[in-house]
């Protein structure tokens, strides 16, 4: 199966540090790997409504929700490129992940079974020297992958506040060159605790 990388840009502005770092990492992908880039700010999703117990779910069509659902189902690798906002993913990114809850209940797509075994990756830039402050972001992505039975490729970190600052983070640019290499084949994500 050929690989398709879906890059979901979660920043509220274009060409920020997270996007720059993600594009540097993507430059290293083989030319036969398809890349699809979608800005969540330019393709906003409606607020997620939890209708688990009081509504039938139908497959969305003709809007940003349908676009993102189809792109997610077609991807072998999903890259969440979200800046660190208040120690976790951006609002655009969180809304996208919230919609997974609805897609899990959408008949005819087998959302969880489709994503099982595929890989979830993260890229983030933060204006802080200590990466530990991004633990909630990492946990969100790792646990989402674990719940779906996906592989987790880890998170590529960069440092920067003003757009372009990450280009001065030589260590991040060096890590970007090998972030998606086959030698880093991720393992199936596991919860650090038993889910009951």
TrEMBL record:
Superkingdom, natural source: Bacteria
Gene3D superfamilies: 3.40.50.360
Molecular functions per Gene Ontology: oxidoreductase activity
Keyword annotations from UniProtKB, A to Z: Flavoprotein, FMN
Record carries keyword Transport: no
Domain annotation NADPH-dependent FMN reductase-like: ranges: 6-123
Name by which UniProt lists this protein: Flavodoxin family protein
Organism: Streptomyces antnestii
